[in-house]
Design goal:
One of its GO terms (molecular function) is ATP binding. Pfam families: CysS_C, DALR_2, tRNA-synt_1e. Belongs to the class-I aminoacyl-tRNA synthetase family. By secondary structure, the chain is of the alpha/beta class. It has 15 helices and 15 strands. Strand 3, helix 1 and strand 4 form a beta-alpha-beta unit. Helix 12 packs antiparallel against helix 13. It is elongated and about 85 Å long. About 1% of the residues have low confidence.
């Protein structure tokens, strides 16, 4: 397999080389659950969902871990403002995360560990770092000593001077060096805390991912991923503390996706233009949101506008209409031989799709191949003498690539009519048979209000969701 991945650390595309047993370990940094996730968060979770799907599609066994940061400064601040306990807030937004990502077709990770479930392991890791001289205590806070790690900064390729410039110094911090970072924070009065050898406190942000990655995936993991905003300081600090702790390479391939902009502006709280997924799902379909994210290469920024989203809706509608037409046509096609020319044509599309995805997961080019197969499908559906086997081959191709890998085309839409819709359609057919067209129109309008569009064809009534 000639799959090339852009490695943030080396700044080049590298062939994916993992153990010969076809197993891949993958860790993607999850959300800090103090609020609903925004579309920028969703880009990472959706794209790396496709990375995982494609690896599985090509025969790899993927162990996929995505954490929840369920204690940090922002959760504590939210607790102060709302009066709710930190665990209650975290649970609320973890459930909201799953609702959003399930709603966007993102498969759940094999393991979703929470930071607060691994406090003991974090304390143990910090103790090792102290013993090795990589960490030190100041008034109940524990800091990582970056000067002790000669290659600190190797992920972002920044000099120590540049790193110091980008570091924010908190009030009352007593670091040996500005780039040193907290492994353990001494608890302030009223804050959630845990017992430790250094007093009551809680872990710093970075140590949690190192501990959970090692626990579930081992000393060295294949792919570690997240948004480009995590590159520094989070991932840089993860490398330093993990390799100091284990004396082993931490990650083979670092992957980072770019930002989503709101038109020409950066999305930020200060500009008031943050788009939460929970709100966007009320206005746009799951498929359109996925399409928007996947229609641009992950290492390029995306611009979110209403026009772009309308185009996304139109694009996924074309895909789904073609899929529905294919399902409907197969039901009435005669059995026969598979067309050999079609088989060769589909093989060519497979090669093109594979070439796109093997080139650093180029989903934009892969989507172009999907549309070419959609066009082919429409041509074959219109063929009056097409065989069920030929149509079935097209459906199988679209399911494997458009549904299983990209999650954009679905072949279950017409197969799960709920009882109300089924009864309404049957009632409308009865009204039409007795020429009660007024009642038939009322039922049609009622279904349309429910988001169900009816199409009368020679083979009977078909329906689709708006």
């Amino acid at each position: 397999m000639n799959l090339k991945v852009y490695n943030t650390q080396t700044k080049i595309k590298e062939k994916l080389n993992v153990d010969g047993n076809k197993k891949v370990t993958m860790y993607v940094c999850g959300p800090t659950v103090y609020n609903y996730i925004h579309i920028g968060n969703a880009r990472a979770f959706t794209f790396f969902d496709v990375v995982r799907r494609y690896l599985e599609h090509t025969g790899f066994q993927v162990t996929y871990v995505q954490n929840f940061t369920d204690v940090d400064d922002r959760l504590i601040e939210e607790s102060k403002q709302t009066g709710e306990a930190v665990p209650v807030i975290a649970e609320k937004y973890i459930e909201a995360y799953f609702a959003d990502m399930d709603g966007m077709g993102v498969k759940r990770a094999d393991i979703h560990p929470r930071a607060t479930e691994h406090i003991t392991e974090m304390i143990e890791a910090i103790q090792v770092l102290i013993e090795k001289g990589y960490a030190y205590e100041k008034n109940g806070d524990i800091y990582f000593r970056t000067n002790a790690k000669e290659d600190y900064g190797k992920l972002t390729h920044q000099s120590r001077t540049d790193l110091k410039t980008g570091v924010r110094i908190e009030v009352n911090e007593e670091k040996e060096d500005p780039t040193d970072f907290a492994l353990w924070k001494n608890a302030k009065p009223g804050e959630i805390s845990w017992k430790s050898p250094w007093g009551e406190g809680r872990p710093g942000w970075h140590i949690e991912c190192s501990v959970m990655a090692r626990k579930y995936l081992g000393d060295t993991i294949d792919i570690h991923a997240g948004g480009i905003d995590l590159c520094f300081p989070h991932h840089e600090n993860e490398i330093a503390q993990s390799e100091a702790w284990t004396d082993q390479p931490f990650v083979r391939y670092w992957m980072h996706n770019e930002y989503i902009n709101m038109g020409a502006e950066k999305m930020s709280k200060s500009l008031g233009n943050v788009k939460r997924v929970v709100d966007l799902r009320k206005h746009y379909s799951q498929a359109a949101l996925r399409y928007f994210i996947l229609s641009v290469h992950y290492r390029n920024p995306i611009s979110f506008t209403e026009e772009v989203m309308n185009q996304a809706e139109e694009s996924v509608a074309r895909m789904q209409t073609a899929a529905n037409n294919l399902i409907h046509r197969i039901a009435f096609a005669q059995s026969g031989q598979m067309d050999q020319a079609l088989e060769q044509e589909l093989a060519g599309f497979t090669n093109r799709f594979t070439e796109a995805m093997n080139d650093d997961f180029n989903t934009a080019n892969a989507i172009s191949v999907i549309f070419d197969v959609i066009k082919l499908s429409n041509e074959w559906v219109a063929n009056s003498v097409v065989t069920r086997e030929s149509l079935g081959a097209i459906q199988e191709w679209l399911k494997k690539h458009g549904e299983d890998v990209l999650g954009l085309v679905h072949f279950t839409t017409e197969q799960h009519l709920d009882s109300e819709i089924e009864a309404r359609i049957a009632e409308r057919e009865s009204a039409r048979r007795i020429r009660d067209f007024k009642r038939a129109d009322e039922i049609r309008d009622h279904l349309q209000a429910m988001g169900i569009v009816l199409e009368d064809t020679a083979q009977g009534v078909r329906w689709k969701r708006k």
